[in-house]
Specification:
4 copies of one chain form a homotetramer. Chain A is an alpha/beta fold and 428 residues long. Helices cover 48% and strands 10% of the residues of chain A. In chain A, the strands form 2 sheets. In chain A, strands 1-2-3-4-6-8-9-10 form an 8-stranded parallel sheet. Chain A has a two-stranded antiparallel ribbon with strand order 5-7. In chain A, helix 6 runs parallel beside helix 7. Chain A is globular. Chains in contact: A-B, A-C, A-D, B-C, B-D, C-D. Chains B and D meet through loops of B and loops of D.
Chain lengths: 428, 428, 428, 428
Amino acid sequence: MISNEQIQDHNSGRLQLHNHSWDHLSAQLQEQGHSVNELVRKIAGFQVAVPSWALGTGGTRFGRFPAGGEPRSLEEKIADVGLIHALNRSSNSISLHIPWDIPRDTAAVKDLLNAHQLVIDSVNSNTFQDQKDQEFSYKFGSLCHTRPEVRKQAIDHNIRVAEIGARLGAECKTLTIWLADGSNFPGQHHFRRAYERTLDSLKAIYAGIPADWTTLVEYKPYEPHFYSMIIPDWGTSYSLCQQTGDRAQVLVDLGHHLPNTNIEQIVARLMHFGRLGGFHFNGSMYGDDDLTTGSIKPYQLFLIFNELVQGMDDPAVRNPDLAWMIDASHNTKDPVEDLLQSVQAIKTAYAKALLVDTEALFEAQEANEVVKAEEIVRAAFETDVRPLVAESRLQAGGALDPLAFFGENGIRRRLIEERGRYAVATGL
Amino acid sequence: MISNEQIQDHNSGRLQLHNHSWDHLSAQLQEQGHSVNELVRKIAGFQVAVPSWALGTGGTRFGRFPAGGEPRSLEEKIADVGLIHALNRSSNSISLHIPWDIPRDTAAVKDLLNAHQLVIDSVNSNTFQDQKDQEFSYKFGSLCHTRPEVRKQAIDHNIRVAEIGARLGAECKTLTIWLADGSNFPGQHHFRRAYERTLDSLKAIYAGIPADWTTLVEYKPYEPHFYSMIIPDWGTSYSLCQQTGDRAQVLVDLGHHLPNTNIEQIVARLMHFGRLGGFHFNGSMYGDDDLTTGSIKPYQLFLIFNELVQGMDDPAVRNPDLAWMIDASHNTKDPVEDLLQSVQAIKTAYAKALLVDTEALFEAQEANEVVKAEEIVRAAFETDVRPLVAESRLQAGGALDPLAFFGENGIRRRLIEERGRYAVATGL
Amino acid sequence: MISNEQIQDHNSGRLQLHNHSWDHLSAQLQEQGHSVNELVRKIAGFQVAVPSWALGTGGTRFGRFPAGGEPRSLEEKIADVGLIHALNRSSNSISLHIPWDIPRDTAAVKDLLNAHQLVIDSVNSNTFQDQKDQEFSYKFGSLCHTRPEVRKQAIDHNIRVAEIGARLGAECKTLTIWLADGSNFPGQHHFRRAYERTLDSLKAIYAGIPADWTTLVEYKPYEPHFYSMIIPDWGTSYSLCQQTGDRAQVLVDLGHHLPNTNIEQIVARLMHFGRLGGFHFNGSMYGDDDLTTGSIKPYQLFLIFNELVQGMDDPAVRNPDLAWMIDASHNTKDPVEDLLQSVQAIKTAYAKALLVDTEALFEAQEANEVVKAEEIVRAAFETDVRPLVAESRLQAGGALDPLAFFGENGIRRRLIEERGRYAVATGL
Amino acid sequence: MISNEQIQDHNSGRLQLHNHSWDHLSAQLQEQGHSVNELVRKIAGFQVAVPSWALGTGGTRFGRFPAGGEPRSLEEKIADVGLIHALNRSSNSISLHIPWDIPRDTAAVKDLLNAHQLVIDSVNSNTFQDQKDQEFSYKFGSLCHTRPEVRKQAIDHNIRVAEIGARLGAECKTLTIWLADGSNFPGQHHFRRAYERTLDSLKAIYAGIPADWTTLVEYKPYEPHFYSMIIPDWGTSYSLCQQTGDRAQVLVDLGHHLPNTNIEQIVARLMHFGRLGGFHFNGSMYGDDDLTTGSIKPYQLFLIFNELVQGMDDPAVRNPDLAWMIDASHNTKDPVEDLLQSVQAIKTAYAKALLVDTEALFEAQEANEVVKAEEIVRAAFETDVRPLVAESRLQAGGALDPLAFFGENGIRRRLIEERGRYAVATGL
């Protein structure tokens, strides 16, 4: 665990340079009419959950190149998130993936979470792989399977996942369902019946979990199936949620769209319907690439946050609070570094979105002043908000440069020494 | 106008060869348990409307290369569709495009339609271009426009379009709305407000047209706007229809999808919801290419028809009757030839879909016998149904080879002589 | 091993029905001027190699659902291909993947190949995964790596792979290089230097393998890297081959293209340059989906064969003989069934391409008679060639219905009994 | 024409704010080791040509919504570019489009150019439309046409275009060929012959224009043809240039790529080959959308400039000087405003690319320090370079805020008064 002293040591050497930049930026923002304290407060308060599966080196079907020192247990995963949170003060929660993250000693896990100032924010079921002790295979589907006993097994698994989550703390009230069900060949699926079976299964899960829990329903156009996915697009996810209940909500994963999709418009649509439940952040150039968030299309990420900020600020929008999560894989980067970069990119996009002069923007939109509207949005994006994000991290007790801290302190080397060169994260 | 004698002359020379093939195929189909008469009856009965705008040479923003002899008036457009229908007996109706197809003499037009055994099946509004006498411009939108007076103008236009259609015959009870509204740049649109304004406009149109009319709402991801379209996907279209009324239905245009979309699944989805109102057939490799139907992805066209046939045959599906229309542009082909090819491709796909052994397919699907299910579907596709489609045309009084008839009789040459080398179809 | 008697038993029950269809089709083809014997001969002679890695159940990064009975050794892989070849008489060769398929007893392997009437046609290197005993990791590339010692290791591996192949028979004169090298993030690669290093490595391999060997250089736009691949497109592959030598040739994998690519045009281009060396067949809807060949876009497959047949028949084209290979993964189908379907689809496309009336086609092309040219191509595609493909298989001693044979004889069940339910194919 | 006094008036009110920002940024850049004067000099010197066709309101095949005041002649187009250049001091040249921009009085045009401190930098031929007086139609192609007389007409046109350019000044030594030739349907083109005819035509043009001229060969995957384009990708363009001559070079248009293409890698590739001749800048979300440059993917634009700057700075790269041009259409924006925004986006990307610490980057690349390499690139992108671009404009005599100047001085209103509300730019 990283001590406050270490953080302060790190910061002290960087403070002068930071203050210089921050003084200039904060003056500039105040001139533009922003409340600098309010900005810092909002950005510091923005927390993004880290999924337990993102702490090991991921890979592709072609191979995996682990860097070593991966967390071998739930406890070590918590330690890694604790490390990240100590550095950036922005990752105070974890998304668990069941069956891998089932705690052996619930009380001890809760203590460990407390020690790291972390909570479990949500739990994720897994019906896209077969576990050793499993009675029925999910090869041909889970919630959409033609056989009722397979569906029941998948429904029960989801309900059990929620139970495990509930035991880990009152903050955990979200079940995320990524349904990998689909078909690889024309003719394989009866589309209408498969949809109806999926809906029935979702209703059964919804009825089986606590009444104050939210069910997040993810969509994805392809992979692991390459002809059809049972929930390929937001429209399908939305229609399922409509029929399931108020606390059934759509989850948007940035990598789960066909080429050229305008994702920010989907975000606006779902908020307008009050059905945007959460986000999986990652970066994407081709498909579900699971790259570092913001590494490929930072402007798109900003435009998405622009919609989110406007939607959250608009009293006419009756969307529930959102679950913010990272969902990425790490093939060539250290997972901790990748997560630190992702959080930085998310906060950068959020900070820039907060700078948009929405009043002037709405006026330009009403008047169809296209150039003006675009320039307003663009001005926020062009602003260098690194000092603002750093200041908010500083005030929250984090490190001015988390990446540098991680590297300079040889943390990966120490993790390898402790856990071994060939430690493999559970679930990978 | 083509006489029955001409058709019979044409057919007589081809009959022997046709009969030989048909005898073989019909024997084969009967062995497989099909009722050949029923197949012929269904295929002969399948009618696809021709849109009035498809009778001239289209083009792209880069240029237009007309072949000459284009119809200069509604009357000449009717004559062209009459010609097509006389040859293929499958295009007994026309989709009108207002303002270009406003009849000067309604009674005369109705007589002309009767003479050609045609009806008007639907009317299409146009709010994506400015007309000379128009008070407000649609440059920044029509049904979604920020100014109420512009929206009102667009709503009134739609209602008037329905009135014009209603006057032309009792068969016309469908208003097709393709809404080109959208934005070209980030910031230009307030997505949520633009959606809400569009919904209000659609409701006003719905309330303003006769109670037994259907409103078809088309979606399209891009073009003519290149950042966002107000109705980019089926999910948006569906949500608008849900809130507008039972007779608001989604129209699927085959070219209006992002790359790699599984369109057949969308078709199944919408039929399952009872919200598939109609089809715009065309061929597409990249986007809204508006090529000849089936010219690029004939297997996809067949798979779509497979869903349509299954949906229409399933008593559990409560989808209304669909409006079948071609919507294509003709850059390098004679428009009449292109339309004849399109109808042939549509009927081929329909005929093959009728051959699918659905009982065996559903069994294989239930049992997750993937290879078997695929082979059943594929067997229907591999069948050479050209004799079946020809036989159904023959029995309906059409030509055995409409394309050959058109070419051999020098019809385009005669149209050019009659209408001129540089005649330009109204609306182009 | 399957005996001729078993094949004849199988065929005898199906012969009457087949002959009936074949009589009709062959008469029809003769009427059209085709030499039926020539067609049968060509189709029977067309052989497609099976890659050793395609005999197990593949999967995605999300999981794998093996059906059991997978080949546990090179010998069992040969047995599986032998089985396929016995049934379809079209898969007389195997592509090996080193390091997994290194024979322990070369003489014994050669005897086994002889017994199954098989040859090794090509060998594939693997520098996209780290092997246990490997000195340097390929995490950051192999042939493009910044460190010369890593490149040397990868070069040496490729040369050794060719040596292994050469020992297995004189027919093996092809080294296939799929280079997974690439980068996941902007800034990671110095594009120009990485290209130059790759070129140098290719030259070294080319110089290190026997002088009569062909080097096939594959391209792929993404996966396993998601920002850039060192050889993303045919242009890069072609430029590398140009600089490497005459026997460096481009390999086209059908799944390795960006959305909407016109692959048949690339095929024509490369043949025109004399640089098309080989093919990896598979089916694709979204990316490198590795589905059954022809399962998604059969018309495209046919159009590709149309170019291949025209190129092979044209004396002006100085392209070498091509290496035909399947490269697919099998997630939800039995691998053997999948391969049988793939070969059937390939032969179907080839047979249809042979039916194209090229003389008339070229005339129509010269005269810009677009409709006529398209109808000529389409007529070949619409023809039901299943009896033709079956007849060519029959005459070659294969089964009339390989899939049915495989299923009815419970072959998978027997493989599971022999090899075990959880046998995993080496290399997976 | 805008006077220096007007510019100075405009600047004086903004100078204090600008100086404040610039002082801060220049100090920061100096701390990082940059020569601020050198940066300003380079950015000020970067000039982007405006194409004559971009001065009117473009549109799509669905319609056009002109704002009025469009230039009705070459002289008025020069005036518009002169206005842009007076404001941004970065657009000192024009790309002409023949046949529309043929000067009636060459000497007068040259005087006018001089008065505006402008030159003609390149000329563009047009063989994608038929002109009234044209003997042969380009409906079925121009340089690739099957008939030699059509090809000759197109070749002669290209040569004549170069002659017209040569007469307008010694700076004009570039002929840009965008070849719209292609096919809409399978079977239409004989791919290999069409390629060979195209190559012959290019060679004839190359031989027919002055020996010191450069021929730029553009590629585009689709539109206006939707099955195949004769030059669909950089590989085809490159192969044609290789066979044509040293001064045949590839032109990259940012909108001419399939979805998800890594354009920056293509840029690096072509520079490495010494074959990157020029650029058409525009913005793109779906295809050849021709939006404002940088409006959709500013990070990609920066990454492209990163490759350009590295390539131009590397003595090992023997690429000729590049032709920088904007090629956009303006559907919903004022063309002049759109062009001002595009130039600003280009200069922003260029300025940021100049800030990349290439020495550190190359070190990180060599060491495969992925995170570090990415952070170096990203740091440059995150920098707010607006003061730097403004300062370079200021020092060159331009306006601090060209867009504001254009709006506040009511220039469009004055152009409408002068040229009329319905003036249509020649060529649209």
